[in-house]
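USER:
Make up one protein:

ASSISTANT:
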Amino acid sequence: MGSLRIAIALPHLGVYGGIRRFLELGEVWTRRGHSVGIFTPEPEREPWLPFSGTIASLGALPLGSWDVILSPDPAVFLRARAPGALRVFYAVLERAPGERQAFRAADLVLANSAGMRRYLARRGVRAHDAAGGVNVAWFRPAEGRPAPTSGPVRVLVYGRVSRRRKGTWTAVRAVERASLHTGVPVVLTLFDAPPDGAGEPALPRALRIPHRWVLNPTQRALADLYRESDLFVSAERRAGWCNTAAEAMACGAAVACTRSGTEDFARNGVTARVARWSWAWLLSRRVAALLRDPAARAGMAARGHDAIQAYSWERTADRIERVIEPRRGGHTHGTTHAWAQARA
């Protein structure tokens, strides 16, 4: 494949999983010899992950020469213009405001998970597989990971309480319920990078299990949190791709989760314990099964680690390149709308 000039249009460069996707992919493409630029509406500081390409204001985008414009944000995507560029909308969130207009304006639609492709298909939009990913070079088990012990089970939950669809409170209640029901002691850790430097998030009530918060962890500290955990619990709703569950799995933690954002890599009873719905009582059953049986937990963690390797950012970049390459230079803007009308 020849080198590509890829412009990535983002709403900001904040510390969010959706932003991670494009910094990671941009870095992979830059290493492969493609020219990559990230464009945002307002001037941005240096990104929080390594990125070797260029960063500029969205207003400068039309001044360059680009083969591809790629964006996950409908409003930014509709603003992003460059002469002759293939317009690619990368769907990462269900029911994103303005998504129908973005589908219609796109030459190509990508989806970041099997669940997102199914969501788009129900709306008459054909989306190509761009599932993934995880940085498997960074998120990996500690060498000489110890065997499970008889002490408290170390459980980790993503603590973004301010965003209900992340399911933090559901996951926390599931862990609490499972521990009290089984009698297996746990130590719960919640981590978050609160928006705008806010303080420790507040849970709706006091917990009956020991817990602590870790706020604003560095990437090294985040990887260590995953590695030190026996079990990661996620209860997301309407997720495209669950970064945290994938990262935990890559670091060797067992995973109990909902289907949302995980069905590409979380196979119930094989690589994870999966609850169909984001209900605390239902997820608690999956958690309880892993609390009771340390050997089964360790086996599931090992199988999960092996399975998630198929979703490295390099492989996600491969999937996207295979879709884009045949369409270089011969596209017609708005073809998505021509062959797949987005329905209400």
Notes: The first strand starts at residue 5 and ends at 9. The CA atoms of residues 239 and 261 lie 5 Å apart. The two ends are 38 Å apart (CA to CA).
